[in-house]
Amino acid sequence: MEPYRASDDIEEPDLDLLVGQVTAAAGIAGASVRGLDALEAPKAPRTAADDIEAELKGHGPVAGREYNVPREERERAKAAIESALTLQMRGENAKALKLLTEALSLDPNLINDHYFASIAASVTGLDGNGALRVIIDKGQRSSFVKTAEQTKKQQRKEKHLTEARQNDWNAVGFELFIYFLIMMFGPIFLVLVIAQSLGGLFGDYTGNSAFMATLPPEIVNFTTIAAIPLVLGGLTAAIGSVVGLFIQGGFIHLISVGVLGGKGTFPNMLTLMLRVYNRWIPILYLLIYVTIAVLFISQGSIVVLCLVLPIVVINFYLLFQVVGRIGQAYDYGTAMGCIAVILSSFVLALISVLIGVLTGQTLNQALSAALGLT
């Protein structure tokens, strides 16, 4: 006889039946969860702000109706109105209209405010409901803003050209005369300062013929330069400076008007540039004179660097001022003025290279023909 086991009285479970029961239970639970997710959350009650927003999206606030507007919104609307008034006084009607629209959206009660209506009339140029309709109606508002911006641009252009025409060729002639004198006497005095400095440096050795014989003849002759060559050199420098100014100025004008879209006149640009040159170039020459004198007196001391630094700084400042005046002359800003100067310099450099190449080829051909090499 086999021994008794407790497991003999327990029936083995039906695994297929058990799996089916678990699956059915899971399906019921999933359906319950989906049912809970499908329930809609209760909607928040509509507020006065919702009604205001709905009306503004439709036909705008209703005249005579009082809206419940929070205090902070009313304060923001009031500030927007004051800003709009400031812009209107400056001729910024497009921006002013946008602020009035913002103010009305913040506080629809302004539809009944006479102060708001008067500012709206000043901005739009319309009276009564016409001004309010421009603010409320999106289509009319967009059309007004576009027209106002175009009008402002045209007025600015006309104002700029009117101011530019005040600097005519008479103004150019006056500034050009001063510039010519500066560019003539500046180099003359530069040569005199160098000559005097050399004379002072070798003054103690003038009686020493042996030492003077060791010096290059150019240095000896430079200390006793004649007046006529000096004046002719100054005239040549001045004429070259004026011609160079007109050539580069002409390219700047063509590039500014034809390429960069600037609005201005050539005489006005020259006048503004010459005023900068006439103010700062004499200061540069003066610093150069002092630097040369200190260089010879101190015999190359490091103190000279203290004078060289201001010269470099003023040169950069002068360039920045010229670029700014060009931007002012054509009403397109300093950055575009810088681009105009760079492009004109590039064109001049390219022309110089082409002229040099053509001249070299011509001389080479002429020399070859003269030597019978062709």
Topology order in helix (H) and strand (E) letters? HHHHHHHHHHHHHH
Q: Approximately how much helix is present in the residues?
A: over 70%
Q: What is Rg?
A: 43 Å
The beta-strand count equals 0
Average pLDDT figure: 78
Q: Beta-strand percentage?
A: under 5%
Briefly note the structural class of the backbone.
mainly alpha
Shape: elongated
Q: How many domains in all?
A: 2
What does this structure look like?
Helix content is 77%, strand content 0%. By secondary structure, it is mainly alpha-helical. The protein folds into 2 domains: 48-163, no CATH class; 166-370, no CATH class. Helix 4 runs antiparallel to helix 7, helix 5 (114-124) packs across helix 6 (129-136) and helix 11 (227-258) packs across helix 14 (333-370). The model is unreliable at 1-26 and 28-56 (pLDDT under 50).
List strands and helices in order, with pairings:
Elements: H1 15-38, H2 48-57, H3 71-89, H4 93-106, H5 114-124, H6 129-136, H7 138-165, H8 169-201, H9 209-214, H10 217-222, H11 227-258, H12 266-297, H13 304-330, H14 333-370
In short:
This protein has 374 residues and is mainly α. Helices cover 77% and strands 0% of the residues.
Name the descriptors:
about 375 residues, elongated, 2 domains, single chain, mainly alpha, disordered N terminus
